[in-house]
């Protein structure tokens, strides 16, 4: 069976939107621009390819492109790139750009499926994929249940992103494929833990940290670093030192996400404040809050996980997290984990430029506002 090649050259397509905000560090921006261009070329190619088969096949590619080319942080490509360069890889090697683009497509796959599982309404400031197609089905008066159609199409679009991610990573090849397989397993297992924890209303701190580590932390920082080192042929030597940096920083990344869901700026994070509270996510922030509260707060805490949780109740929970010291506890943990990561990369046998970039990225992860 022939496989359509993934073009590397220039393509005639509109310029992509900015990949990152002006406050993002140079260690992120330079990588993001190259990965962005790769994604534009790939998705433009796929759109043209499938339009020639049937006009209806343009829609899922466009929906995927809208999400992938929105204001993503491009952190995973950056960690992959600096893991590669730190291990002695050529900064101009196209393989690491392919690997970075694969991470962005894998992230799109995870987000689209996550939104279906959680019933989320917005993502990166736009309506979620499944709701777009629910609306399209209902508006067109088609047969069947609009919800099932919308969720089914979203799952297929997520799968499309996953296949394209695999194809890109296979072209980058090398020892990175084994790490790629492992991180995809970890991502799925972490998502399962998140779903079970949400359904059971888990408030155990140790389990909440485990979910944070496997659902997001490992595949955001540690595994991209490992893929980069593998592409440069030095994974065996660098896996331990890069994990000593990536593991604590990955957890700090997810803890910051949890804090932003409650205390962030809705315009920056691209979704309603308090979504984790309405979904009843088993976050370390919620575990710390529950542990610090008593029977007086039980009625309010019992509202967590309710879809009809009001903005006023979200505000009351935010105040409770502040007053109980739970927010301060999480902020302290983020700082501690980041310091561990910075100390570890200072001792790792990587290039000076990569060490400087990874320290800068650690500081960005710890203090980001989106």
Essential attributes:
single chain, mainly alpha, Farnesyl Diphosphate Synthase, two-stranded antiparallel ribbon, 2 strands, disordered N terminus
Could you outline the blueprint of secondary structure elements for this entry?
Layout (H helix, E strand, L loop, with lengths): L25 H26 L6 H11 L6 H12 L7 H25 L3 E2 L2 E2 L1 H12 L5 H27 L3 H25 L4 H27 L3 H29 L2 H4 L5 H5 L4 H9 L5 H4 L9 H14 L1 H22 L4 H16 L3
Antiparallel strand pairs: 1-2
Helix pairs in contact: 1-2, 1-3, 1-4, 2-6, 3-4, 3-8, 3-16, 4-6, 4-8, 5-6, 7-8, 8-9, 9-15, 9-16, 12-15, 15-16
Report the strand count: 2
User: Order of helices and strands, N to C?
Assistant: HHHHEEHHHHHHHHHHHH
What is Rg? 21 Å
Oligomer: single chain
Q: In the residues, how many domains can be counted? A: 1
Mean pLDDT: 90
- Spatially, the strands of the biggest sheet line up as 1-2
Q: Describe the sheet with the most strands.
A: 2 strands, antiparallel
CATH topology: Farnesyl Diphosphate Synthase
> Which ranges are low-confidence, i.e. pLDDT below 50, for 5 or more consecutive residues?
1-22
CATH architecture group name: Orthogonal Bundle
* Class based on secondary structure composition and strand pairing: mainly alpha
Could you state the CATH homologous superfamily?
Farnesyl Diphosphate Synthase
Distinct helical segment count: 16
General description of the model:
This protein is mostly helical and 370 residues long. The protein has one domain: Orthogonal Bundle (Farnesyl Diphosphate Synthase). The chain is built from 16 helices and 2 strands. The protein has helices spanning 26-51, 58-68, 75-86, 94-118, 129-140, 146-172, 176-200, 205-231, 235-263, 266-269, 275-279, 284-292, 298-301, 311-324, 326-347, 352-367, and strands spanning 122-123, 126-127. A two-stranded antiparallel ribbon has the order 1-2. Helix 4 (94-118) packs antiparallel against helix 8 (205-231). It is globular and about 60 Å long. The relative contact order is 0.11. The model is unreliable at 1-22 (pLDDT under 50).
């Amino acid at each position: 069976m022939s496989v359509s090649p993934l073009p590397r050259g220039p393509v005639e397509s509109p310029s992509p939107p900015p990949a990152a905000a002006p406050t993002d560090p140079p260690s992120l921006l330079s990588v993001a621009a190259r990965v962005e261009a790769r994604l534009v070329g790939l998705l433009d190619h796929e759109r043209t390819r499938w339009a020639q088969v049937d006009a209806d096949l343009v829609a899922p590619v466009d929906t995927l492109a809208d999400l992938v080319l929105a204001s993503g942080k491009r952190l995973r490509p950056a960690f992959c790139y600096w893991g590669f360069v730190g291990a002695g890889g050529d900064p101009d090697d196209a393989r690491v750009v392919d690997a970075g683009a694969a991470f962005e497509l894998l992230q799109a796959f995870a987000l689209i499926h996550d939104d279906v599982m959680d019933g989320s309404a917005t993502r990166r400031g736009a309506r979620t994929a499944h709701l777009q197609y629910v609306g399209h089905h209902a508006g067109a008066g088609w047969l069947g249940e609009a919800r099932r159609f919308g969720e089914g199409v979203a799952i297929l679009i997520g799968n499309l992103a996953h296949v394209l991610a695999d194809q890109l990573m296979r072209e980058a090849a090398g020892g990175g494929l084994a790490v790629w397989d492992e991180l995809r397993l970890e991502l799925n297992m972490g998502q399962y833990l998140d779903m079970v924890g949400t359904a059971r209303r888990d408030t155990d701190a140790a389990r909440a940290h485990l979910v944070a580590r496997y659902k997001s932390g490992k595949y955001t920082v540690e595994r991209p670093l490992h893929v980069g080192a593998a592409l440069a042929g030095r994974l065996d030597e660098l896996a331990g030192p890069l994990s000593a940096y990536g593991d604590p920083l990955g957890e700090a990344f997810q803890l910051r996400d949890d804090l932003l869901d409650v205390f962030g700026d809705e315009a920056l994070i691209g979704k309603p404040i308090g979504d984790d509270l309405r979904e009843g996510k088993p976050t370390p922030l919620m575990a710390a809050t529950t542990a610090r509260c008593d029977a007086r707060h039980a009625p309010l805490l019992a509202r967590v996980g309710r879809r009809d949780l009001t903005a006023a109740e979200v505000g009351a929970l935010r105040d409770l997290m502040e007053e109980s010291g739970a927010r301060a506890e999480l902020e302290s943990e983020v700082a501690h984990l980041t310091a561990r990561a910075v100390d570890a990369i200072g001792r790792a046998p990587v290039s000076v430029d990569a060490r400087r970039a990874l320290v800068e990225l650690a500081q960005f992860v710890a203090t980001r506002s989106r």
